[in-house]
């Protein structure tokens, strides 16, 4: 479904991605872990071309997204959920959710609103449809952001630290929704410091450090039988926190 080949990205003289390679199969839930500043979030942004790579390929369903004339159409298939929600504060929940599909002429307004209300009902937020983001808790905002991605009929969702801005009691709300979406077959790539969540949720885990992926495997292989010294050191620090 997704293949990243030798992806490189620098900001000025700082090399952030130094030749990243990864594959994601349809239906996989891929977790990316690693120390802060190793390039995890930049990798996600390069996958859907929010950041343009300096070199390398991002192939999604046989289309190379880099310098693709149909990028905007293809990118609609790849949803993105950000750490800070990125909701428009001057729009209601319903307006936030329906804005993109209506503007892009993917759905008529009445169809989009009906679908949005059905999705909000599934996560017990239907009564919040006409409220503004400032009236929501952090967990509610993030669940709305996930629903917004689903409204685009995407085939893959990228999650960039989806729970790091939340209070501990709200993390469960968001992870429960992510588990529900996963059961419905959604392909996901998740960058997170919530190691226990990654460990229990992801079908494949990648360890990233120094701008490259140093090790990948199942959750058991990564967390129970780590091989690379940097992964062993990373996990030892987490256990000592």
Structural topology:
Layout lengths: L1 E10 L2 E11 L4 E5 L6 H8 L7 E6 L2 E2 L6 H5 L2 E4 L11 H11 L5 H14 L15 H13 L5 E5 L7 H16 L3 E5 L3 H7 L2 E6 L2 E6 L1 H6 L4 H11 L2
Parallel strand pairs: 3-8, 3-9, 6-7, 7-8
Antiparallel strand pairs: 1-2, 1-4, 4-5, 9-10
Describe the overall structure:
The chain has 241 residues and is of the alpha/beta class. The protein has a single domain, classed as P-loop containing nucleotide triphosphate hydrolases (Rossmann fold). Helix content is 38%, strand content 25%. It has nine helices and ten strands. The strands form two sheets. A six-stranded mixed sheet has the order 6-7-8-3-9-10, with helices on both faces. Strands 2-1-4-5 form a four-stranded antiparallel sheet, with helices on one face. Helix 6 (168-183) links the parallel strand 7 (156-160) and strand 8 (187-191). The chain is globular, with a radius of gyration of 18 Å. The model has no long low-confidence stretch (mean pLDDT 88).
What are the key terms here?
four-stranded antiparallel β-sheet, alpha/beta, globular, six-stranded mixed β-sheet, Rossmann fold, 38% helix, 10 strands, 241 residues
Beta-strand content estimate: 15-25%
Q: What's the CATH H-level homologous superfamily?
A: P-loop containing nucleotide triphosphate hydrolases
List the secondary-structure elements in sequence, H or E.
EEEHEEHEHHHEHEHEEHH
Cross-sheet strand order for the largest sheet: 6-7-8-3-9-10
- Describe the largest sheet: 6 strands, mixed
